[in-house]
Design goal:
The complex is a heterodimer of chains A (330) and B (1194).
Chain A (H helix, E strand, L loop, with lengths): L4 E3 L2 E3 L3 E3 L8 H9 L5 E7 H17 L22 H13 L4 E6 L3 H13 L4 E5 L11 H18 L4 E5 L6 H10 L4 E4 L6 E4 L4 E4 L9 H11 L6 E5 L5 H9 L4 E4 L1 H6 L2 H16 L5 H4 L16 H10 L3
Parallel strand pairs in A: 3-12, 4-5, 5-6, 6-7, 7-8, 8-11, 11-12
Antiparallel strand pairs in A: 1-2, 9-10
Helix pairs in contact in A: 4-5, 7-8, 8-10
Chain B lengths: L5 E5 H11 L3 E4 L6 H12 L11 E4 L3 H13 L4 E2 L1 E2 L1 H16 L5 E6 L14 H4 L7 E4 L3 H18 L3 E6 L7 E5 L3 H7 L2 H9 L19 H6 L2 H22 L6 E5 L5 E5 L3 H14 L4 E6 L1 E3 L3 H7 L6 E6 L10 H14 L11 E7 L8 H12 L6 E4 L24 E8 L4 H15 L3 E8 L7 E9 L12 E6 L14 E10 L13 H9 L3 E5 L1 H7 L7 H12 L4 H16 L4 H16 L2 E3 L21 H11 L32 E5 L9 H5 L5 E6 L14 E2 L9 E6 L9 H5 L13 E5 L4 H13 L12 H4 L18 H11 L3 E5 L3 H7 L16 E3 L6 H25 L1 H4 L1 H8 L6 H18 L5 H9 L7 E7 H7 L1 H8 L6 E6 L34 H6 L5 E5 L5 H13 L4 E6 L12 H10 L6 E3 L11 E3 L8 H5 L3 H9 L1 H26 L7 H7 L1
Parallel strand pairs in B: 2-3, 2-4, 5-6, 6-8, 7-8, 11-12, 11-14, 14-15, 15-16, 17-20, 20-21, 21-22, 29-30, 29-31, 31-32, 32-34, 33-34
Antiparallel strand pairs in B: 1-9, 7-13, 9-18, 10-12, 17-19, 18-19, 22-23, 24-28, 25-27, 26-27, 33-35, 35-36
Helix pairs in contact in B: 1-2, 1-6, 3-4, 6-10, 11-14, 12-13, 15-18, 15-19, 18-19, 18-20, 19-20, 28-32, 28-34, 39-40
The chains are: A alpha/beta (330), B alpha/beta (1194).
Chain lengths: 330, 1194
């Protein structure tokens, strides 16, 4: 069975890769991921905001009390090799590149224009084979309409695309009023790949303390259908590669994703739950299933159930909703 | 000679630079003002800086100066070129080893930033009392007077010791030289190489201990041998001055700077000469030049080599014309014939006069004076007074100068207006807040000027003794000539006030010269600010024709993302209006400095600083000065009118910055000082204070518990007492059955609060409809200051709750009056809530032994004292002995109390006929285990005093003196981890090994806090600290476990932010235990590196993550067959990394080397689990009770 795929212009032996997560932030785990056969490794996202806050906090606390009291002109050592900002990310990227042979994809979440561009260049300089633009955005501003949000996205993408020569992929949320149009516009802007979808950290409520607790739940397979729907809708209709992330846990999940058009399958929660070796099990399982079902190659299955090719394309549209709704029996 | 390389650093750095390059091993222990030298040496070695032989010196921090001296001795014995840096009490701890090192004729140079020794009081400032205490050790002593000289003499002393084999102490004045930033000519590595002969080093190494050529040193000698052997070293001491002289000549050839063993300056035929050492000699030099210019025949002899004393050189250097000599010593030896330098000079002159060829036709009159103790200013006016004295017909033979001694009349009068500073010296004074970066910016400014112009530059900084809301005053001079003005600026052409609220507290224009420029940071625009200035400031501006420039730097800083750091903004304004440097060049240089400071760390920091610089000038405006002072605002009095006379007359003067004017008679003779004076110092240092919403309050009292400054208070009182309450005074009915029908009052001390917000953070009472709101909310102080002052006064005058009615649990502990209030501790301090709690629970019968450190500084630094009294006049009695001896000091207190109590009991029994059997029995058998027992005993003792009145028998009088010891006293031995884990550990361990009833409170900040973040043995694995820059690889010492190993010690580990109920339980159990108790209290600290408003959350996280464990180990439980150890915290339930990532001390490690950080984190997690598992095992371990134990328990 021939599982090879092309994602972001990178020729990969199969679509299964480690998505952005703390796993790829650890050198030992990075090696384990490669050993488990990951076709590429996506590094954790570099959050510009976090970097800025961290820098200011470190700067603030280390300097505020200096030179203010006669017995202590400072309270901390000042190591010359201490680096704030994105430098450690770039260092880590270099180390990962040295340690593994598979492509390494950097991931970036910016705030300011300068942040997006500077950090993108830094990552390219550090050897990233491709770059994920992690457009993590929560629309809380009452005055900002949908068009503005989309314009912001396009503005960033265009600038980053101009600034770097490596392929870029955009990791999106599903919360756009016309997601197909966004996919189309990004495609026109020359984006090399679309990743469906980002997962949001959703709050939980502590009813005793009357406060919000930020929580992170690992995904499960129930999150996959939303991704399948939009993969299917976009597959074959955009030039950009498509990747699925969020909800691929089983061999079946992976096959469904491929059938809906995924060029790449990013796994995170499943690897956090079961360890890096789960990637190989999934890959092998998929291969076995395709062989058992007499597929010649992965490309035969890829997008076979997309909006363009599905035997019942209406299922992707309103009819699907209607049918599901009517199937409920009280 | 190569081109001069000029640098601009402080004296400590100038010295350390030489010491680090000329040594192989540095062994240190931090002590002010020398700490920076050791820190720099460590920093340089960590960054791979090499000595002149191309290897990186080993730098190690020890547990005490005694330990450092021992390690130095060992290193020297094994042939390494070794150094140390120290001062004051630290130097005293080295004395035993100094005798040994000298007795063994060991080449060794140590560097001392000379500091006052603690006598009637501790002082961190400079004088020669410490170095003079070493003059008998056999060390050569070389003095330097300025930053340049300190740099040079560090090299000369090192070379001289290698050549002479006599060990050298190089000393310079603490703070005045150690902390003065000055432009000086730097010695290159080649210069240093030219000064040190490899042969001498080879000889030094050949004398080292080696099993290949074994010798033995440190023998014990008997009367037959010791004396002669001791005299055998004489030739070395005889040769030493000549060698130093030779080294100085060689130094002159290398550098062009010629020094002598003594250096004379002044009129070649002077009649009146001053002889002195140290930085004061530079002020004297400046004055002599001035006076000689005016035609006076005066001179100055600077003594550089004090040991071996160069008698002949001194005599020869004096002009033959000399008629009178004033010898100035910067130390005091009560009862001596004279101070040390005076005695040396007299002896030298006498010997000359008795020689066949006397230097003088007639023996000059020699007088001896003291000056400058504890960095007391020494100015040209004082120098002039000394010349006036010795030129007079009947000079005072013993005198002091710089103070007004109205008791013994020793002081010389001086004309404070006398000045010698030329007009072409730019003099600038800056008033800043510790946290606003003023000092840092000024250090930067003088570097810019010094490095970009031919000007000489000097900066000296005066710091507050408070750690919160601390004022800093920067004194900057720029001159076309070498600056010798080793005293603060008296008149300034430029004055800057970086904090607007200083105007109502300080006379910031006092030093402004006529026509001076005044730069003011104000939140009012330039055209409106006039009406907001105090009247005194307006008058000064008009009378002195001052030009005023105004900027809202706080707003510019905020807009540029700089927070409260207004440093670069004010620095830019200074350059813009002072004209010391061309404006554009100055801005370019400021930016260059910013790039240098932050460039390697973060471009964003560079950008925000650049933005601040660029925005500064656009917001700087000149104020138009009106003709009349019209303001109705006046500067606040330093203390209120109702303060006691002593506070008004003495404390008030000190608070107003005029303590120098107080005469000797104003002061207590023995360092005994009244308590409870912080209450008169209304500091008003915060812009926001908490405001109580009584409707939301659940009366948990946690806010009072955590307040570091006792600035939020609780009372429970009869509603009838509130009839005359001010209109805005708040109260609610008390919820609960403990105090039925009473009112609950919570009140903030509006002018004492430091705005730390810990109370708001801990407040659990949320508005259910809008949980953003809590029962405590921060609000601007100014609009409610007057109202809340009135409310607080009313509150304080309400009666305190009867202690016998208060349940001794966490919640109600806060009903008890705190007897530790409004200290100068950091805003948000994690230590002071524990001390405050001790004073609430036991304060009216407590004696505190306090180790030197943060807690002694905020506990006992003048001008004001935070320990106070209750309405009966009782409260904690407090004393500080030293850093290293505090456990022993406290044990001594216990011994005295116990002995006197026992003797009182004997006397009570002996006088039973007079006292009455019932009272005697009641007194002797009194149970004093609770407040009722204490109160009853106090009543009995009052009755006893009455019975003894009129009884004149010696026994009765003695009992009358001792009777108060019959009320149980609580001894608290208090200090930080530096004391308990390191320097004082031996004593602490010994005290724990006794069965005496002492309570030891260790406030564990896990680092040396007071001296600036050096690692202690309490520093946790993974934390960066000075001397552990890459992150400490070893777990902290488990002090609690060590104490528990004794078996008879009560031990508790507590963290207020995690479980306050456990804290109170531990304190009350420890106090009730009649043996030694040890409480280790987790204390958050600014040296942890986060905003302390989150201190309590971090404490909780520390416990939840296993970083800190809560437990109590009570030996009394063993008698009940129970395990003594009880765990009060569970297994770690939050990742340790969660706790660590919030604190800069850990983040520094991660930002240097993420892989190492991960490794240390894993090790720390493993250690936390191991520790917990061990405790858990111990908590399940008990021994069966034997009959004897049970009987004992019963």
């Amino acid at each position: 069975m021939y599982l090879s795929t092309t994602y972001l212009g990178l020729k990969l032996p199969h679509p299964f890769m480690a998505g952005a997560s703390p796993l790829s932030g650890d050198m030992d785990k990075v090696r384990q991921l490669e050993d488990a056969g990951a076709s590429a490794i996506v590094l954790p996202s570099l959050f510009e905001e976090q970097i800025n806050q961290d820098k200011k906090l470190t700067y603030h606390v280390m300097e505020t009390f200096g030179d203010s009291y006669g017995e202590a002109l400072s309270y901390f050592p000042d190591p010359e090799n201490m680096k704030l900002g994105p430098h450690h990310y770039a260092d880590h990227l270099r180390k990962v590149k040295e340690a593994v042979d598979v492509p390494v994809i950097a991931s970036l979440n910016g705030v300011s224009d300068a942040g997006w561009l500077d950090h993108a260049k830094l990552m390219q300089g550090a050897g990233a084979d491709a770059l994920e633009i992690n457009f993590y955005f929560v629309a809380t501003d009452l005055d900002e309409n949908g068009q503005t949000a989309e314009d912001n996205l396009m503005h960033i993408v265009q600038h980053v695309k101009q600034a770097v020569s490596i392929p870029i992929a955009v990791k999106l949320s599903p919360f756009f009023s016309s997601f197909s149009n966004i996919g189309h516009k990004l495609d026109l802007a020359g984006v090399d790949g679309l990743i469906l979808f980002n997962r949001f950290f959703q709050p939980d409520i502590d009813i005793e303390e009357i406060e919000i607790k930020p929580t992170l739940h690992l995904s499960d397979s129930t999150e996959l259908p939303l991704r399948l729907a939009w993969l299917g809708i976009l597959a074959g209709r955009v030039k950009a590669s498509l990747a699925v992330t969020g909800g691929v846990h089983t061999v079946e999940d992976a096959i469904k994703s491929i059938m809906c058009g995924a060029d790449a399958v990013q796994m995170v929660s499943a690897l956090l739950k079961h360890g890096p070796g789960h990637l190989r099990e999934t890959r092998d399982g998929v291969e076995q299933w395709f062989e058992e079902h007499a597929y010649e190659s992965l490309s035969q299955a890829k997008g076979s159930l997309s909006l363009e090719k599905a035997p019942d394309p209406a299922a992707y549209q309103r009819a699907n909703y209607m049918r599901l709704l009517h199937s409920w029996r009280m | 000679m190569p081109d001069k390389q000029m640098q601009t650093v402080d004296g400590n750095e100038a010295v350390a630079s030489v010491a680090h390059r000329l040594n192989e091993v540095a062994v240190i222990y931090p002590i002010t003002p020398s700490s920076t030298m050791g820190e720099l040496a460590d920093d340089w070695s960590m960054h791979g800086h090499k000595n002149i032989w191309g290897n990186i010196p080993d730098v190690i921090e020890m547990q005490s100066e005694g330990g450092a001296a021992g390690a130095v001795h060992g290193s020297l014995q094994n042939g390494a070129l070794t150094t140390t840096f120290t001062a004051s009490q630290g130097l005293l701890l080295m004395i035993p080893n100094m005798y040994k090192v000298a007795g063994e004729l060991t080449a060794y140079c140590m560097h001392v930033s000379a500091r006052t020794l603690a006598t009637h009081a501790l002082s961190i400032f400079g004088d020669h009392s410490d170095v003079m205490a070493c003059r008998q050790t056999g060390f050569a002593m070389l003095s330097s007077n300025s930053v340049q000289e300190a740099h040079d003499m560090a090299c000369i002393a090192q070379a001289a010791t290698l050549q002479s084999r006599v060990p050298f102490m190089h000393f310079f004045d603490g703070f005045r030289t150690s902390h003065e930033v000055s432009k000086y000519e730097h010695l290159s590595d080649d210069d240093l190489r030219a000064m040190v002969d490899e042969d001498w080093i080879s000889q030094h190494r050949k004398r080292a201990l080696s099993p290949d050529r074994p010798v033995i040193r440190g023998t014990a000698q008997n009367p037959d041998a010791f004396f002669q052997a001791r005299e055998a070293c004489n030739p070395f001491y005889e040769a030493c001055p000549g060698i130093v002289s030779e080294v100085m000549d060689r130094f002159a050839k290398v550098t062009g700077r010629q020094y002598g063993l003594v250096d004379y300056v002044g009129h070649p035929e002077a009649e009146h000469v001053v002889v002195m050492m140290g930085s004061g000699a530079e002020a004297a030099h400046e004055t002599v030049d001035y006076l000689v210019d005016k035609g006076e025949r005066v001179g100055l002899l600077k003594v550089r080599l004090f040991r071996p004393f160069p008698m002949a050189d001194l005599v020869t250097a004096l002009p033959e014309t000399v008629r009178s000599i004033g010898v100035l010593d910067r130390t005091k030896e009560p009862g001596a014939a004279g101070e040390p330098l005076y005695l040396e000079v007299v002896t030298s002159l006498n010997e000359s006069m008795q020689s066949p060829a006397p230097r003088f036709a007639q023996m000059p009159i020699v007088t001896g004076g003291r000056y400058g103790l504890s960095s007391k200013e020494f100015t040209p006016a004082m120098v002039k007074a000394v010349y006036d004295n010795i030129a007079g017909n009947d000079p005072k033979r013993r005198f002091t100068v710089g103070i007004n001694d109205d008791v013994t009349g020793l002081s010389l009068p001086y004309d404070a207006d006398f000045t010698v500073e030329p007009d072409d010296v730019v003099r600038a004074v800056f008033y800043g807040l510790g946290a606003d970066g003023t000092v840092g910016a000024n250090k930067n400014s003088i570097k810019i000027i010094a490095e970009n112009t031919d000007s000489y530059a000097q900066a000296y900084f005066v710091y507050d003794s408070k750690k919160s809301g601390a004022i800093t005053v920067s004194h900057l001079r720029f001159s076309p000539r070498l600056i010798q003005s080793t005293y603060q600026i008296e008149t300034a052409s430029f004055v800057a006030c970086h904090q607007f609220n200083f105007l109502e507290r300080y006379d910031v224009l006092e030093k402004a010269a006529d026509g001076a420029t005044f730069l003011l940071n104000a939140h009012h625009p330039a055209d409106e600010v006039w009406d907001h200035l105090p009247n005194e400031i307006q008058q000064a501006i008009i009378e002195k024709n001052i030009k005023v420039y105004v900027i809202d730097a706080s707003k510019v800083a905020k807009d540029a993302g700089m927070g409260r750091r207004i440093n670069t903004i004010m620095q830019t304004c200074f350059f813009a209006i002072s004209g010391v440097l061309e404006r554009d060049e100055a801005i370019g240089q400021i930016k260059k400095a910013i790039e240098k400071t932050y460039g390697r760390k973060s471009q964003e920091l560079v950008d925000s600083n650049f933005a601040a610089v660029d925005a500064a000038l656009a917001h700087l405006h000149e104020m138009k000065v009106p003709k009349d002072a019209s303001s109705k605002l006046y500067r606040l009095p330093p203390v209120p009118d109702h303060a006691p006379d002593f506070v008004k007359q003495v404390t008030g003067m000190m608070l107003a910055g005029k303590g120098d004017l107080l005469p000797v008679s104003a002061f207590p003779v023995d360092g005994t000082w009244p308590v409870g004076t912080t209450q008169y110092e209304k500091r008003n240092i915060t812009e926001e204070i908490p405001v109580w919403d009584e409707k939301l309050c659940i009366q948990c009292n946690k806010c009072m518990m955590v307040c570091p400054h006792a600035a939020i208070r609780l009372k429970i009182t009869e509603p009838a007492n509130l009839k005359k309450a001010p209109k805005t005074f708040k109260s609610v009915p008390f919820h609960g059955k403990e105090f039925p029908d009473q009112s609950y009052l919570l009140q903030v001390a509006p002018e004492d609060c430091t705005g730390c917000t810990l109370c708001v953070e801990v407040c659990p009472a949320k508005d259910k409809a809008n949980p953003q709101r809590k029962s405590l909310e921060m609000q601007p102080q100014r609009p409610i200051r007057d109202q809340e002052r009135e409310n607080y006064d009313f509150f304080l005058n309400l009666p305190e709750t009867d202690r016998t009615t208060v349940p001794m649990v966490a919640k109600f502990s806060q009903v008890l009056q705190p007897l530790f209030e409004y200290s100068g501790a950091c805003s948000g301090c994690g230590e002071t809530p524990y001390i405050k709690l001790v004073t609430q629970l036991f304060g009216d019968r407590t004696i505190i032994a306090n180790a030197t450190g943060c807690s002694s500084i905020y506990g006992g630094s003048l001008p004001t004292t935070p320990y106070t009294t209750n309405p009966e006049g009782r409260g904690p009695a407090w004393a500080n002995s030293l850093f290293e001896d505090n456990a022993e000091f406290g044990l001594g207190m216990r011994l005295a109390v116990d002995h006197q109590e026992a003797h009182a009991k004997e006397l009570v029994k002996a006088l039973s006929g007079d006292i009455g059997d019932d009272l005697v029995t009641a007194i002797i058998n009194a149970e004093q285990n609770d407040e009722t027992g204490i109160r009853d005993q106090r009543e009995r003792i009052a009755a006893l005093h009455q019975k003894l009145a009129g009884n004149n028998s010696p026994e009765a009088k003695r009992l009358d003196d001792l009777a108060d010891y019959l009320v149980r006293k609580s001894i608290w031995i208090v200090g930080g981890d530096g004391w308990a884990y390191d320097i004082g550990y031996g004593g602490l361990d010994h005290v724990l090994s006794t069965d005496r009833d002492v309570n030891i409170l260790v406030m564990d900040t896990e680092v040396y806090s007071n001296t600036g973040g050096q690692q202690s043995k309490a520093t946790p694995l993974g934390a960066a600290a000075k001397f552990a820059m890459a992150g400490r690889p070893i777990p902290k010492k488990n002090l609690g476990m060590e104490a528990m190993a004794y078996g008879h010690v009560y031990v508790a580990s507590v963290a207020m932010g995690a479980k306050d109920a456990q804290v109170v339980r531990a304190f009350t159990e420890a106090e009730s235990y009649r043996g030694p108790s040890l409480i280790i209290a987790y204390s958050h600290c600014i040296a942890h590196g986060y905003d302390l408003s989150h201190g309590l959350t971090q404490q909780k996280l520390a416990v939840d993550s296993g970083h800190w464990s809560l437990y109590r180990s009570d030996p009394r439980l063993m008698a009940e067959g129970k395990p003594p150890l009880q765990m009060d915290s569970g297994a770690p339930k939050t990742p340790l990394g969660e706790f660590m990532r919030h604190e800069a001390r850990f983040r520094i490690v991660e930002r240097q080397d993420p892989e190492r950080y991960k490794m240390l984190l894993k090790a720390a997690e493993k250690n936390a689990k191991l520790r917990h598992d061990l405790y858990k095992y111990m908590a399940g371990f008990s021994e069966p009770v034997e009959d004897d134990d049970q009987e004992a328990a019963e």
